[in-house]
Each structure stands twice: as C-alpha cells, then as structure tokens.
Amino acid sequence: QVQLEESGGGSVQPGGSLRLSCTASGDTGSTLAMTWFRQAPGKEREGVASIRLATGYTYYADSVKGRFTMSQDNAKNTIYLEMNSLKPEDTAMYYCAASTSWGTWTSATRSFRPAEYIYWGQGTQVTVSS
Known about the structure:
By secondary structure, the chain is mainly beta. The protein has one helix at residues 108-111, and strands spanning 2-7, 10-12, 18-26, 33-39, 46-52, 57-60, 68-73, 78-83, 92-99, 119-120, 124-128. Strand 4 (33-39) and strand 5 (46-52) form a beta hairpin. It is globular, with a radius of gyration of 14 Å. The relative contact order is 0.30. The mean pLDDT is 96.
C-alpha cells in the first residue's frame, strides 16, 4: 500500500504563484509514475502534469505548459508542482496520484487517465481570484 499526502494549496491573486507538494509513504518502491490532477466544481477531473519517476521525464497539459513545472526529490519521496502565472481558471482541487503499472507513462494520453491510478491523496485546494 502507498499513502499520498498533498500540501501547499491556498488562495492567491491572478499572476501569483504556489508550490504544491505530495509526499509518499508505505511501499513507495512500487510506484512508477506520479501525476497531478485537478477538478473544479461541475467539471471532469483532468491531468495537469505527470512524471516518470525512474527518469524524471515529464508531460504537461497544454493549458499549463510554460507556467507549471513538475519535479521530484527521491530522497524525500516527494513530488512538487511549481505553479506560476496563475489564472482564475486554475482554481480547483488538486490531487496527487500514483501508478504501479509499467504502461501508465507510455503516452501523455494514458498518463492523464484517472483510471490508471490506484493511489490518491486527499487533495489540496487552489483558489485564484482577485
């Protein structure tokens, strides 16, 4: 089993920045890919950024590319999402998810499917407004 815990959410003005963290515990050696998802009220859950843990290679959704950066700290079993130039449309609950499947990270499309992930954090709220 793997446990995930997100932190770093909050309320910021448009153009501001936030850094989200997700720390994994338990059988962390079984996790092969980790992804940040977000879900706003009335909308479907969407993938934001994904990382292949073995290499650090990343995928980004078109809506955040150039503004968000995903990274990892293997020593701390932690992944990060640096969010810059935040917009009101970025407002959502942000979730960290982990996959134990070798096939999850074979494409951006597959890595952004919520059904690929069996471990999820509780979420952290990000609100962008003036």
